[in-house]
Amino acid sequence: MQLQQAIQELITKMADDELVIGHRNSEWTGLGPVMEEDIAFSSMAQDKIGHAWALYRILHESFGGSDPDQFAFLRNAQDFRCCHFVEMPIGSYEFSLMRHFLFDHAETVRYQSLSGSSFTALQHLAGKVKGELKYHTLHADAWVIQLCTAGADSRQRMQSALDNCFQLAGGIFEPGEGEDLLIAEHIYPGEAALYQQWLNNISPVIEKAGLILPALTAPVYGGRKGQHTQYLQQLLEEMGEVFRLDPEATW
Amino acid sequence: MYGGGYIFDEPNRKQQREEQLHDDPVKLAAFEARIARGEKIEPGDWMPVEYRRQLIRLIEQHAHSEIIGALPEGTWITRAPGFKRKLALIAKVQDEVGHGQLLYNAAETLGKSREAMINDLLSGKSKYSNVFNYPAETWADVTVIGFLIDAAAIVNQVANSKGSYGPYCRALERICYEESFHLKQGHDAFIELATGTPAQKAMLQDALNRWWQPIMHFFGPPDKTSSHSEKLMQWKVKMASNDDMRNQFLDAYVPKIWELGLTLPDPLLKKNADTGKWEYSDPDWDLFFEVIKGNGPCNKERLDVRKWAEENGRWIRKALMREDEMERSALPVA
After folding, report:
1. Would you call B319 and A147 a contact, using CB atoms and an 8 Å cutoff?
2. B312 CB near a chain A CB, below 8 Å?
3. Domains of chain A and CATH, by start
4. Of B179, B159, B190, which Cα lies nearest the Cα of B256?
5. Which residue positions in chain B have pLDDT lower than 70?
6. Which of A156, B25, B71, B147 has a Cα at 20 to 30 A from A94?
7. What is the pLDDT of residue B231?
8. Any residues with CB less than 8 A from the CB of B115 and at least 6 apart, and which?
9. Each residue of B250-261: pLDDT tens digit?
């Protein structure tokens, strides 16, 4: 794999993760357990979708890829490179909160590393995104700790959510083809390094919350190769429902 | 958006009249003199029992309208076509929920907790704007809501922002500021369809036809049949009559709709050059009251969503509060 192609793969998987989790977070609109959480999830959804848009624009402008709207709204599941974790339906609030906690810490580690990337477009974007993610992880940490320390019932719910999420979260760090090249060219440090840093970052919060971190025995891989859950195609059909009525029209 | 122009009141006024008799006449006179001078009433100030009751009713129903109003558009966030529309719609709906939060806070200053207000919403005791009991069937509906229902709500909210209760007025000033952006994005999306492909135009015309009657209902029954209270006008709780607000809305927006080559499903709709007032067919007011009673196309669906959120979120709210706070907040206001 050529370096250019490897960079595009990296950007595509990051953008697809952000678009799909942003879409999922936006589904909490009107459903949040308190209005403040409705607003928080909406706000984070906007950030995620905004990041995806910015990444698709890099593909479009730096690599001659298709228009970001067309790329995002017309592809089918097998052309997406998101991990299974982001595809899962919103489920219960504790599942969505735990996903937000695990995913945003992973994002933080990724963008922190990219702020030193040799690929300038990503380096610039990472500088901006890092600042936003700080608030996402602050939000996640505060809620995880609050709910886990409010009594046995809520702690148990959060532990179950963590147990249900953890192997899926491991899929964020699925190794990709061409990764060695990206590491060698200082585009980013590679998934294994990000995973270690992520564990270092989440562990103190997990400990403070009184949760037990499961072992990562069977990370759910496949998304980066275009193999997905049934939920992704359903999500994409919904997302493209209006856009696909007439992809040439402006909306 | 979303303060419905019409605020539903329960018909039982007997108790209220009796309570009103107990207001200290000296304090009442001083209170009315303050309002006449244009002063704002603040939470700690003395106020008549009926003034407090009417304000709670008004602000609470406005708050409910914001959070229920987030639902018909909210269901289109996941289907919004393209990044620009998707981001604008999430931001807009988020603002509406934020307005609900501001308004519940304003109503709480009058002594009713948010939890109690939400309980009254879910039990059907407290109402919200009727317009949200209609379905948003296509993307064009979202643009009609974003443009015309927001516009109608702004007419109502700008009027109310000049009312007498300080916390409500201040909340409305901020809300109106944000609404002006919503109106721009709604207008922009509306124009995009109106000037788009034949299919887009047809989709918009269809949405407009379906929404016209709910929009005409929005400001409430005609003044000649509406039991509006002069006292509420004097106390600056109600700031404009239903017909005046409806006329103001028609004057500002019907020409904009017609200029785009769209039609409205009312052959009698025209501006009377002599009176400067708009003439129109009476919308079906029996239907309006049926929908208020809970028999509209989406009343059940809207409340079911809120009930789901309340039931599933209960353990979380409990984890955020101490047990005694939870119990206290569920008590009805004395």
Report:
1. yes
2. yes
3. 3-245 (1.20.1260.10)
4. B190
5. 1-21, 226-228, 322-334
6. B71
7. 86
8. B329, B330
9. 999 999 999 999
